[in-house]
Amino acid sequence: MAWIQVRARAPKTLHETIEDHLLELGAVSITFQDGADQPVLEPGVGETPLWDNLVILGLFTADTPSESLRSHLQDVFESSCQFDIEILEDRVWEREWEQHYQPIQFSDNLWICPSWCTPPDPSAVNLLLDPGLAFGTGTHPSTAMCLKQLAKQNLQNQMTVDYGCGSGILGIAMLKMGASRFIGVDNDPQALVATTDNAQRNSISTDDFIVVSPELENQHLTPSYADTLVANILAEPLMMLAPKLVEFLKPGGLLVLAGLIESQVPAVSEHYLPAVELHIADQTDEWVCLIGRKRKH
What we know:
This protein is an alpha/beta fold. The chain has two domains: about 5-90, Alpha-Beta Plaits (2-Layer Sandwich), CATH 3.30.70.120; about 140-295, Rossmann fold. The protein has nine helices and 14 strands. It has helices spanning about 15-25, 65-75, 95-100, 140-150, 170-175, 190-200, 235-240, 240-250, 265-270; strands at about 5-10, 30-35, 55-60, 80-90, 105, 110-115, 125-130, 160-165, 180-185, 210, 225-230, 250-260, 280-285, 285-295. Strands 10-9-8-11-12-14-13 form a seven-stranded mixed sheet. It has a four-stranded antiparallel sheet with strand order 2-3-1-4, covered by helices on one side. A three-stranded mixed sheet has the order 5-6-7, with helices on one face. The relative contact order is 0.10.
């Protein structure tokens, strides 16, 4: 079965009007895409921000009169936005989507593999993680750099924490690389669900893998708890959370911070002094990963 797709380019101020018209004309789905490469780095909980310039896709069944669609939309919107109409031949869309995701290697012994792929190195540490909710899958430079730094550490029998755990990818990696226990904290309920689901997919025991909201963290986290603590969030929360993250870290424990860009390093680093002296361990484009150990005295 073929489909008719309407593609509209418009400012976000028109998105509700265009969506309403497409639905009234019989669209079976509406998709919003970024029209100008404008990143949305970290929306707040419950927020669904849109880009300033949008590509709006409306999908119609093949029996929809395409010329009537074009005529109606041009009459309503005139020159305020641009419309294209195309025919989409039917395909096995699940397979089309899967082609874009292949195993990713982060060290000699660490891979992330979608569930539909055979691990390239069965003897390596293989994390099974499928793209789904909008949390880390290892493709963002910040997540990738954290994984590479963790792969360099001896995590055997360590107590580990990921503050802002997202998909749980870093916690799963730490347990699979020898850590004895992991606690993940996130303020987004969807992240907690994603983390738990991914742990189950990787056969991680819930006895060793705990995920909680910040409101419940003190039931599990105590001062000097963590041998290794990771926080892959943004510069502002990294600065705000500095006293808490330092408190949770054992003397001599390793702190790994990411989600910030190079120009933000001085301000973020200052918030962790004198307890932790941070330095840039890795950099990809503007994104950096900081590491440091908590002073023992």
